[in-house]
Design the sequence.
C-alpha cells in the first residue's frame, strides 16, 4: 500500500485550492482527475467583483475574502511561474433609471467599494455604450482559471501526486479510506457538477446552470477595463476579450450552441462601438447550489470531506473555503454549519 495523507478527487478550482492549501500545511496529497476538456473551471471567465448583482450586495467578510484571494493567487504565481491573477478596473453600468435609483439608495453603505474616475470613464465610453452612466468598483479583475488549473495539474503530475483517471467509486472504500493500492487519512470530494454521480453523497443540493461565453478579437485596441453589465466583457490582451455569460437552468447538454452564441452576440452588439470577430465559443455547467451557498465540511465521517457548490464566485471563494478544511484537518477548527451538507439531509 502507498500511504498518502489526503486523496483529492477532482482538480478544478475547488480541488486545486485544496491541493495548494494542504501542501502549504505540509500535507501530502494524491489528486485524481481525468483531465476533461470543458470543465467549469477551464471555461470560466474568472472575473472577481465584490459587488454582486442588480441589488448591489457585498459579502460581510468581503475585504478579508478579496485581500486573501489576491495574496493566495500571487503566491501560486510564484510557484507555477505563470501570471494568473490580473487586477483590472471594473465598470458597472446602470441598466435603466430604476437601477440608477436603487444604486443611489445603496451607495452610502458601499463607499468603501466604489470610486469615480471620470477620465477612465471617458476612455471606456469611447468603446462602450453606457446610456445611464455607471461607477467603478475597487478590488476587481480576473483570474486565468484555465491556466491555474492546467498549471496545478502539470505540477501534481511532475511530482507524482496525480492519477489521470475518473475515479472508480467501486474501488473507493470510505470506511478504510483506501483506493486501489493507496491508503489515505482523509478523502476530499471536489468533482463539481459531476458530484451527481458520487454514490457516497445522497443529498440533492445542486441546481446546475449551464454557462456559455465567447472569445473575441477587436479590430482596435481595447481599454484595460472590465465592462460588467447585463453581460461582461473582459479584455484579456490588447485586442482580445471574453464576453459572457449565459445562465441556463433548462438545457439539454453542456456543448456550446446557437442559442448561447446568438444571445451573447445580440447583447454585445448593443454595447460595443468596435468591430470584432469571434475566435472561440465555450460552454460548461456551473455547480450552483439551490440556496446559493457553497457546500463545505464533512460527509458521514470525520475524515471524509466535500468542497463544492462554488457557483458564480468560484475564484474568490475556493481558496478561502479550502483553508477552512485545511484548518479542520490540521487544528480541528470548526467549519461553520452554514456550509454543511446536512442542511440538505431531508431533500
Ligand atoms: C461560462 C462560465 C463562466 C464562469 N465565470 C466565472 C467567473 O467569471 N468568476 C467565477 O468566480 N466563477 C465563474 N464561473 C464559475 C466557476 O467556474 C465555478 O465556480 C468553478 O469552476 C467550480 O469549480 P469546481 O472545482 O467545483 O468544479 P469543476 O471546475 O467542474 O471541477 C471539477 C473537477 O473534477 C473532475 N472530476 C469530475 N468527476 C470526477 C471523477 N469521477 N473522478 C475524478 N475527477 C473528477 C473534473 O475533471 C474537474 O476537473 C463560471 C462558470 C461558467 C460555466
Sequence:
Amino acid at each position: 500500500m502507498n500511504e498518502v495523507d489526503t486523496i483529492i478527487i477532482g482538480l478544478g478550482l475547488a480541488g486545486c485550492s485544496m491541493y495548494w492549501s494542504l501542501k502549504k500545511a505540509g500535507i501530502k496529497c494524491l489528486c485524481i482527475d481525468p483531465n476533461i476538456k470543458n470543465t467549469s473551471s477551464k471555461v470560466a471567465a474568472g472575473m472577481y467583483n465584490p459587488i454582486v448583482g442588480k441589488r448591489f450586495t457585498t459579502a460581510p467578510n468581503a475585504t478579508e475574502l478579496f485581500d486573501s484571494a489576491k495574496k493566495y493567487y500571487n503566491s501560486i504565481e510564484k510557484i507555477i511561474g505563470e501570471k494568473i491573477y490580473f487586477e483590472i478596473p471594473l465598470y458597472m453600468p446602470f441598466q435603466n433609471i430604476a437601477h440608477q435609483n436603487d444604486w443611489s439608495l445603496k451607495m452610502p453603505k458601499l463607499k468603501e467599494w466604489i470610486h469615480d474616475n471620470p477620465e477612465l470613464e471617458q476612455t471606456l465610453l469611447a468603446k462602450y455604450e453606457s446610456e445611464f452612466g455607471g461607477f467603478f468598483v475597487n478590488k476587481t479583475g480576473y483570474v486565468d482559471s484555465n491556466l491555474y488549473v492546467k498549471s496545478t495539474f502539470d505540477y501534481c503530475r511532475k511530482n507524482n501526486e496525480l492519477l489521470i483517471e475518473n475515479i472508480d467509486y467501486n474501488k473507493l472504500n470510505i470506511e478504510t479510506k483506501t483506493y486501489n493500492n493507496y491508503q489515505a487519512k482523509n478523502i476530499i470530494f471536489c468533482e463539481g457538477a459531476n458530484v451527481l454521480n458520487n454514490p457516497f453523497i445522497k443529498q440533492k443540493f445542486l441546481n446546475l446552470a449551464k454557462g456559455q461565453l465567447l472569445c473575441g478579437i477587436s479590430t482596435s485596441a481595447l481599454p484595460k477595463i472590465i465592462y460588467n453589465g447585463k453581460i461582461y466583457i473582459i479584455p484579456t490582451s490588447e485586442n482580445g476579450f471574453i464576453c459572457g455569460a449565459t445562465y441556463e437552468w433548462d438545457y439539454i447538454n453542456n456543448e456550446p450552441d446557437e442559442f448561447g452564441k446568438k444571445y451573447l452576440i445580440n447583447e454585445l452588439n448593443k454595447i460595443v462601438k468596435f468591430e470584432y470577430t469571434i475566435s472561440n465559443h465555450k460552454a460548461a455547467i456551473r455547480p450552483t447550489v439551490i440556496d446559493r451557498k457553497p457546500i463545505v465540511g464533512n460527509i458521514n465521517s470525520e475524515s471524509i470531506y466535500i468542497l463544492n457548490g462554488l457557483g458564480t464566485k468560484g475564484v474568490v471563494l475556493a481558496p478561502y473555503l479550502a483553508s477552512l478544511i485545511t484548518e479542520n484537518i490540521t487544528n480541528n477548527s470548526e467549519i461553520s454549519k452554514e456550509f454543511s451538507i446536512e442542511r440538505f439531509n431531508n431533500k
Notes: The pocket of flavin-adenine dinucleotide is lined by residues 9-15, 32-34, 36, 39-41, 43-47, 166-167, 190-194, 211, 213, 244-245, 284, 286-287, 308, 310-315 (CB under 6 Å). The longest strand covers residues 276-286. The radius of gyration is 21 Å.
